[in-house]
């Protein structure tokens, strides 16, 4: 199979999708209709009908085959299957490497979780433990402002509830889906019990710096993850690892297929 070629959507020459009655037609950079075989290739991509400003790669071996803007105004990408497969292999290899690094990291995080003060180190340790046990998205202020979705670093005090050794999180996640997570961990619960004290609309994962509270950022969390694991991992790798474990567990429950 030919090697894939890196392309730049919107910069490299590509095709456009135009409305035609209840369907679509496809034209090249000069506005001419595509030859039948090429049009068939483009249709086989099954580009979502709702996408606007669609750009289509003219090279069947471009690593990105199409882009478009969805209903929420976000640019979406459609990758070549070969590119996706290679990226997934790398992603799962990283997840397995993270699994190997976690036992030692967990011991170090537990030590930090048991600190007396709610300082940056202890709050970062709480963030790590939440990633390790529940793997929420890391979150970002821009997603909160634009979509109303929260993640680890944009959780509010009111999103967390502590009952004994259990920490429950309930918050609006990606695409408006309600997220509910429960973690049974006495060290985490002790720290979160201190973090939730105060105004409910204030950030949950924040530490004292002088007279003010400073909320953790995604960058803070990722730097801490790397320092604890000794590898180039990020919060996203915890989600991949958790998905891998859940998939393996589901397959084990199904058992061999006759």
How is this structure best summarized?
The chain has 258 residues and is of the alpha+beta class.
Your description of this structure?
This protein is of the alpha+beta class and about 260 residues long. It contains 7 helices and 10 strands. The chain has a 5-stranded antiparallel sheet. It has a 3-stranded antiparallel sheet with strand order 6-7-8. Helix 2 packs across helix 7 and helix 3 crosses helix 6. The radius of gyration is 23 Å and the shape is elongated.
- What is the level 1 CATH name of the largest domain? Alpha Beta
CATH fold name of the largest domain? Topoisomerase I, Chain A, domain 3
For the biggest β-sheet, the strand order reads 2-1-3-4-5
- End-to-end Cα distance: 33 Å
Query: What is the helical fraction, as a range of percent?
Result: 40-55%
Total strands: 10
The largest pleated sheet is described as: 5 strands, antiparallel
Alpha carbon gyration radius? 23 Å
* Residue windows where pLDDT falls under 50 for at least 5 positions: none
CATH homolog superfamily of the largest domain? Topoisomerase I, Chain A, domain 3
Topology:
Layout: E1 14-20, E2 23-27, H1 36-44, E3 52-57, E4 64-69, E5 75-79, H2 81-113, H3 120-134, H4 141-147, E6 160-163, E7 166-172, E8 178-184, H5 186-195, E9 206-209, E10 212-215, H6 218-229, H7 235-254
Antiparallel strand pairs: 1-2, 1-3, 3-4, 4-5, 6-7, 7-8, 9-10
